[in-house]
Structure formats: C-alpha cells, structure tokens
Amino acid sequence: xxxxxxxxxxxxxxxxxxxxxxxxxxxxxxxxxxxxxxxxxxxxxxxxxxxxxxxxxxxxxxxxxxxxxxxxxxxxxxxxxxxxxxxxxxxxxxxxxxxxxxxxxxxxxxxxxxxxxxxxxxxxxxxxxxxxxxxxxxxxxxxxxxxxxxxxxxxxxxxxxxxxxxxxxxxxxxxxxxxxxxxxxxxxxxxxxxx
Length: 195
What we know:
Structural class: alpha/beta
Strand content: 15-25%
Strand order of the largest sheet: 2-1-3-6-7
Oligomer: single chain
Radius of gyration: 17 Å
C-alpha cells in the first residue's frame, strides 16, 4: 500500500503537526509496511493561487508541467491522508488551492455529458484528520456538517474516491481537550491499518 500524506499547517509546533508525527510513527510501526510520502504544502512552498489567462487555460491544467510531481504522487498513492486545521468551518485555503489544481479535469475526473463526471481516481481511499478550536459537535449542528460534506461529497467522491474516513477533533485549544488520547487514537489507527 502506498500512502501520500498531505500536511497543511504553517506552524510545526501546532497540534496538526503533532498529528502528522503520530501518522508517520503509526505507519512506520505498521506490520504491513506501507510505503509513505509526506507533502508539507507550506514547507514545499506550494502556490495555491489559480492563474488563467491568454496563455494558461483551465482546460490545460491537467498537463501543467509545474504540477507534474504532484500528479505523480497522487497516481502513486493508494490512500491519501489529509491533515489540516478547520478554520472558518473548512480546511485552509492552502489545501483547497492544492485540491483546485490537482483535481483537474482529465486528470482527476472526466466530463461525461451527464450529471456527474467519471471519477478518474477511483480505487483510492482517503483519511481526513482535522482539529478545531470549537466543540466537536459545532460543524455538525451549527454548520450542517459542511466540512465533511465538502471533503467527502463535493471533492473526494467527485473524483471517484468513495472510501473516506474522518478524524474530526474539537476543543483542541482547551486544556481539557484530551490531546494525548486523540493523538494516540490516530497513532493506533495507522499502526493497525491493513488496507
């Protein structure tokens, strides 16, 4: 199994970074010995800004040579792991900019003329690990589950990724946030991951 971890947080002292370390530790101790690549979008200096003009057209984005490395990573991966904070009820703009560019037509999906496209990333699975300041129930009851709907239905299922697991942790700026318990839960999941 090949695992691509896409980490999105500008601070390596953050709780998101602690989750990244637990993912790496869990995978490294996994008896099934999955292969792993880590993409730190901020450290990479990934440019999330879309530019379309007379010479750069959206329909050609799937073949943009500047994005070739990232396309190869996605094609290589069987499982995509996204680690990010929830800001304003959604993932950071950096991660959404990555998705905007990587989930391009004729790479991640193909228009069929029908209501839904053909997802070209089918067969892959995803795990979303997110942390937020507010209580865990806040996105579900106050925002109508917008974060999970965005990630699962609007983005991942659209490109054919049907199997999506969420670790959505709330109260993470509180001293009563059970940080160690939540970090260990992520560690154990990846240590025992079989497929």
